[in-house]
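SAMPLE LOG
Freezer: B-3
Tube label: C17
Construct: single chain, 138 aa
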Amino acid sequence: MKKVASILITFLLLSCQADVKKEDLSKLNGYWEIKQVTLADGETKDYKVNETIDFFEVKENVGYRQKVMPQFDGTFKTNGIKENLKILEIDNVYFVEYKTDYGKWNEEIIQIEDSTLVLKNKQNLIYTYKKFKPFSLK
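STRUCTURE (predicted):
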């Protein structure tokens, strides 16, 4: 029963969302923290605490994504690895196309707002992000 309810809620959320607009794509820039992953069968996994977050930098539909680790002093550490990306528009649907030395893949931008980002990959995994709010012990 829980699975059915989860699938129904996911369907309703995705079907009621506004279309992604070209002018909203700049909202991708910045730090994003994974909040939830919805599996293809509708099961969800919530993330309460994240050791790493995603940093996106995009200019004129080209940029990169990098995993960073927030530090207690407000700074970030990284391993220096960047995934190059392009924003593609196909039939009025926007995709993030990632490319590394190891592969190339796309994620559909389902929703993008000031504080929410939802991406879906070809395995139908739906990644819901929230804008990262930095913390500091300074």
